[in-house]
Every structure is written in structure tokens, then in C-alpha cells.
Amino acid sequence: MEAGSRWTTWWQKRDRQRAGGPDGPAADLDQLLGAVRAGFPLAPAAHPAGYRCSCDRVACPAPAQHPVSFAWQTQATTDPEQLSRWLSRDPEANFITATGRVHDVLDVPAEAGRLALERLTALGVEGPVAAVGEDRYLFFTATRGTPQDEDEWWPSALDSTPDTMSEHPGLRWHCRGSYTLLPPAALPDGSHVRWLRGPEQPLPDPLRVLDVLTDACTEVGAVAEEQWLIG
Q1: What percent of the chain has pLDDT over 90?
Q2: Is the pLDDT higher at 159 or at 127?
Q3: Residues 72, 115: Cα–Cα separation, whole Å
Q4: In which element (H, E) is residue 103 found?
Q5: Considering the entire predicted model, what is its pTM?
Q6: C-alpha distances in angstroms, 215 versus 101, 105, 136?
Q7: Mean pLDDT throughout 23-38?
Q8: Could you give the CA distance from residue 49 to residue 93 in angstroms, rounded to a whole number?
Q9: Alpha carbon of 131 to those of 3, 69, 161, 202: distances in Å?
Q10: CA distance 67 to 94
Q11: Cα separation, 101 vs 206, whole angstroms
Q12: Cα-Cα-Cα-Cα dihedral sign, residues 190, 196, 200, 205
């Protein structure tokens, strides 16, 4: 099947099966392709099934916020044709992006995120930023990659044990071996993951963003020094 036919089929299925983001399925597709063009590796994720998660796991700890496959690190790709195939099979799918390759993500409570975004804008610090419903902000930064000194490599445990998410409400650093949801994504409560500043923005230095986020978390009572989880 040609790529154009795949996209047309996906639009039609998605329009029938899912309300999608506030601007509809065509805008959803444009956002996913924009992330691919920015080099963000994507893999399919679970989606809402009513008020539950499509994975059907009893008491899923991260409903509609986790990859479909345990092999998500191998699957994650920037190939538009593979994205087309995934969407053809499951037009309702959310997508995650694997961190620690092209980008890292600093993940904070929304109150701290709003404060930090204002300050970063005033400082002239650019970079993609997404909101997860009304609860969290995701700040996309350049990645630390794989440091030469392995003592400086920070592994990620957060997403292999998502139950820990509720135990770490402060700042989380998603790096090598981790992932986050990527806009557009739907959540079981009816909210969405949406871009506030899109993936076409240049990726800033993570340590510069971290300084601002740490101060913002402290000011709103999510003390980063005590609740900072890398992963």
C-alpha cells in the first residue's frame, strides 16, 4: 500500500473511532510527523478504553501512559512508514518517545512547570514543552547521551516500575532507558497530552533547564532535592 493511501485510511479510521485532540485527527497526524522530523524516536503506547487502559491489566498503574510492547526500546523509530503501519493497525494508539537518544525530558508538577516556563521564556531559553492534562509539564532538552565516565551514566528505573510514579511527585529526569508520552495522546479522564511549545524548537542544555525547574519545584512545595527521581 502506498504511503498516501495508508495516511488516508488512518484518517478515516481515527475519525470514526476516536475524537482525537482538540483539532482533530489530521492535526494529530501532523504533530506525530513533526516529532519524527525532529528526530524523536516513537513507539506505540496503550490508549484509553472507556475509563480503563487498553492493555486490560487489572489496576494498571499507568493507564494509557505505557508502551504496548516490552520491546519498545527496540521498536522506537523515526521511520514515517513504520508509523503509518502502526496507525493503520491501531488508529487509537497513543505514542511514547524513547529518551536518552536525541533528547531527555524533565518532568515536573504543572504548578512548577508553569512558573518555570515563564522564567525560561524571560531568559530566552527555548525548547519543546508539553502538558500532561492539568497535572504535569514535560520539558524536552538535549540528552546527556552516554557519558564516557560510566559513573556519570544515570540508568532509568521509573518506567520499568511505573507504580513508583505516585511515590515521586516532584521532579523526574527521563534519560537513557526511559520514555514519556508524546503529544497528541489521550488519557482516560478525558484530558490530553498537548504541546505548549512544539518539537521544532531547539533542544536546550538540560542543566540550565534543571536549575530553573529545581527552584520552581521548591517554591511550590515539591522539593526537588527530596523527591527528584532519575528515570
Answers
A1: 59
A2: 127
A3: 33
A4: strand 103-109
A5: 0.82
A6: 27, 17, 16
A7: 82
A8: 11
A9: 30, 24, 22, 18
A10: 9
A11: 14
A12: negative
